[in-house]
Amino acid sequence: xxxxxxxxxxxxxxxxxxxxxxxxxxxxxxxxxxxxxxxxxxxxxxxxxxxxxxxxxxxxxxxxxxxxxxxxxxxxxxxxxxxxxxxxxxxxxxxxxxxxxxxxxxxxxxxxxxxxxxxxxxxxxxxxxxxxxxxxxxxxxxxxxxxxxxxxxxxxxxxxxxxxxxxxxxxxxxxxxxxxxxxxxxxxxxxxxxxxxxxxxxxxxxxxxxxxxxxxxxxxxxxx
Length: 224
Ligand SMILES: [Zn+2]
Hints:
By secondary structure, this protein is an alpha/beta fold. The chain has five helices and six strands, in the order αββαββαββαα. Strand 5 and strand 6 form a beta hairpin. The longest helix has 18 residues. The radius of gyration is 15 Å and the shape is globular. The two termini are 23 Å apart. Zinc ion binds next to strand 1 and helix 4.
């Protein structure tokens, strides 16, 4: 089955993930997205999943490892920050990432993952003018956008099958911004607890908070 065929099977995102900046705007589903069936985008708690299955379990990846391609856009400092963030997420979640190579691809709603890289997730640094993901998130000025893409594992049970992260050039606190967006890719929604990396506000936390860690454990792990 080709990558494109697989991608067309993904139920498009509901959890368009907006980092930072102003107050959290309710997230707009993509035009082809199914109705929102999970939690609301913001929560009066320290963590929450973007979606839940009908049995109440968080929707998450169910994989041995998650293959990642990176578009550093010629900025090797970005690549360094991505590796730092991926390692941090691995340690907090138990997820295993595999770097599969660099790509020139900038994720879009229609093509979230670089098709030439055999990857599950593409992480890129790109301006909001280079992709429609920022506009889809409702915040063109966001520092980044991280998006999980869902597919059915079985009736009533979704899993995340792909993801994309785009970070705007020149953002400050970039490692934490990347961590935040990868958190979305793993299935975490925003929290209104400002002490967490997954806050809907500007990130001020020095690292993962207790809610972040609980959430990453809930959506993390690997199946082999
Ligand atoms: Zn966010």
